[in-house]
Write a structure and sequence with these properties.
about 350 residues, alpha/beta, 11 helices, about 45% helix
Length: about 350
């Protein structure tokens, strides 16, 4: 990169998945651009206006569900507009759409605001719109943006090259938490579903050790009441739990586990990259888009028949039961297939993505 300097901007605050994205993105940036090529800056909504764009030649923003007006306008647009004033290059790496569902009507019917369009257009003309899944790519392309790359999520590339060993027996099961728990009107439904899922897991794995991860913390701004009810259930069921927020505990607690079942996309991805069979319950288009891209079934937390109000998927236990059995029976094939896909995108898209960043000057 010669004397060029890149600013890596991340909104990783409390969510352990966001920190995992950042960690893997920085590792890739160091590999392709050099350890001295960048400065990493963590932002929040309050500090976004103070990002010192003028000291850098380009900006990379890795991961996260940025492709929705609420987050674009709060986090992305202010930085892009500052970059626009000084004609700085701007690269999204593994950006995703954050919709309620990934059906055609929801996806292609989504409309970006004028402010979002202005920011996306600038990146399209002066950088790369790198997406984490095909739903996000297809949305951007359908809106007329041509400079789109399917880079995948940076977490895909966190364990490439290491051999995947088939689990000879199931000794330890890890469960990830419900992420969408802010809306109190659906609190009871989601607690009911969570309780039923825990009962199913205990029935499927009666003797195996079970642990649980709160990926965004327990006493959070919006979900403390919900999370503490979950914690009471875990204590009653004698399931040990870990708080992965703010780097308190890392995803390394997954490393000696033999199966993951849960709601968190990045628990799912970390497991797959580390040879741990995984079944994801999809809460919204983030999980749906990811699993369709990876070729895994979409098991919805909510009913696909309900358009306006949240309603639990009445068939979730049957779907989970079948998919857990399938993953155990076919784990060698499924894990090899996932790793082959990660390697394919790394060799093709990711290498090309960073070559284009290197050539920006």
């Amino acid at each position: 990169m010669d004397d060029k300097k890149i600013l890596v901007v991340s909104a990783a605050i409390n969510n352990g998945g966001d920190w995992l994205i950042l960690e893997n993105a920085l590792r890739l940036i160091e590999r392709f651009l050099g350890k001295e090529s960048y400065v990493e800056r963590n932002i929040s909504e309050e500090s976004v206006d103070s990002v010192p764009i003028n000291f850098y030649d380009a900006i990379i923003l890795p991961g996260g569900p940025q492709l929705v007006n609420r987050l674009l306008e709060k986090f992305i647009c202010p930085i892009v507009f500052k970059a626009m004033e000084q004609r700085k290059k701007f690269f999204l790496f593994g950006a995703g759409w954050y919709g309620g569902s990934d059906d055609s009507e929801s996806l292609y019917g989504y409309e970006f605001s004028d402010k979002s369009k202005e920011a996306l257009s600038y990146i399209n003309e002066n950088g790369i719109l790198g997406c984490r899944d095909y739903a996000s790519c297809n949305l951007l392309k359908s809106k007329g943006y041509g400079n789109v790359m399917m880079t995948g999520c940076p977490v895909w590339y966190g364990n490439l090259g290491n051999p995947i060993k088939r689990k000879q027996e199931m000794r330890k099961i890890v469960i990830s938490d419900i992420g969408m728990s802010k809306d109190k009107q659906y609190y009871n439904q989601k607690i009911q579903q969570f309780t039923e899922v825990i009962k199913l897991i205990k029935k499927k794995f009666p003797k195996e050790e079970k642990i649980f991860t709160f990926n965004s913390g327990i006493n959070t701004k919006y979900s403390s009441e919900f999370n503490n009810e979950v914690r009471r259930i875990l204590q009653r069921e004698q399931i040990k739990y870990y708080d992965l927020s703010y780097g308190n505990d890392t995803f390394s607690v997954y490393d000696d586990c033999d199966f993951h079942i849960g709601y968190r996309v990045h628990s799912h991805l970390y497991s797959l990259t580390h040879g741990i069979p995984s079944v994801l319950i999809c809460e919204d288009a983030r999980g749906m888009g990811m699993n369709r891209t990876l070729g895994f079934p979409v098991i919805r937390a909510n009913s696909s028949q309900t358009e306006e109000n949240y309603k639990n998927n009445p068939f979730i236990l049957k779907e989970l039961d079948n998919e857990i059995d399938r993953m155990i029976e076919n784990q060698a094939y499924e894990l090899d297939r996932a790793h082959s896909l990660f390697q394919y995108y790394f060799n093709g898209t990711v290498v090309d993505f960073f070559e284009k960043i290197k050539s920006f000057h």
